[in-house]
Amino acid sequence: MVMTQSNGSMFPEGERAARRCDRIRSDAHRTLLLGLAASLAALAVWSAMTRIDAVTRSTGTVVPFNQNQIVQHLEGGIVSEILVREGDRVEQDQVLLRIRDTQSQTTLQQTLTQLSAKRAAQARIEAELSGASEVSFPPDLEESFIIASERDLFLQRKRDQSEQINILEDKIRQHEIALAGLGARRSNLQRERELTAQRTQSLQRLHDLGAVSRNELLQGLTSLQQLDTKIEDLNHDIPQTQAALSEAVRQRNGAVLKFRSDAYEEKTKVLVEISQLREAVSGLRDKETRTEIRSPTAGIVNKRFVATVGGVIAAGAPILEIVPGSDTIAIEAQLSPQDRAEIWPGTKAVVKITAYDYSVYGGLDAQVVDISPDIIKDKDSQPYFRVRLKAANRLGDTYPIVPGMMANVDMLTRRHSVLQYLLTPLMNVKDMAFRR
Description:
Number of strands: 19
Mean pLDDT: 80
Number of domains: 3
Number of helices: 6
Structural class: alpha+beta
Distance between the termini: 75 Å
Helix content: 40-55%
């Protein structure tokens, strides 16, 4: 047996080797446990710190962001030209088709003629009120027959007025002459009466003296009585003649005033009619401009309800349906009621168009715009909420997206840590434990 001395003790060589192996084995176990603990701690920290997105998946359909535009015509008419076909891309305000409205054109021409006639009448009335010798018509009046008619009417009315005034002026002059003659005759008779009265007084004195006969006195008295009677008749006739003169003057002035009054009344009526006709012309011209039916927005012609030239379009009937073109499209997706609490307007999403390989072309960044206020049931009576999202209308620069394409929609609800995902099943088991 080999004995060695270490630190004052004697140990066999085999026992010392065994102790060394035990110590190495213990260190290895401790190192393994420390490593495992460190790994578990690192895993716990990582799972608590690392966050991943929670996604609600759904399918949807690409629709126009704005509603399809139905092109209509207010009055309708006969199709004269069709300029687009289904599938054509059109710009805003582009002419799509033209219609012919013969009735409106005829009505417009008739209304313009009526307006010209009223404007010519207005010029004639203005000339009558101002006392002009001729009518000054607007330079833009081109209807010669209307101008000639109003000029003839002006001259005829002017002659009629002059003749009426002349008749009344002659009547006034006649009454003035008659009145002047009656006055002069009364003056003469009054002077003659004074002389006759003096002569009668002289005859009375001579008769009293017996110088003249009674017959001569009676003759003088009779002449005086006759003169008094004539003067009395004149005093009665003169006021009547004066009254007739005043009446004639009143009639003349009344005729002038009536002429002006009638002219003003006609002018007021004509001005009202001119205003109404101008409004009518404006409406008819606006209607005439609508013979060209234009696109209300840029987009693509989806449907054409009118197929033939010469066809009749009813008032308000649909003519074309245009899918608006926009830098933004909408995706309508179906959301399960159990996921409703996670999705709200503004929620971010990723849209994967099934027509394009997601691994090659990628997806679209989208955002929830609105959600239906209540559930909707599909044809199988399954409830869902309609979710409307908006996104750009193309992938990259060359791959457009059109309405009707199908899409897979991943709506990002909220971010969870890995630890939360790991503990959620345990928490659910805990909540369900000991329940019947």
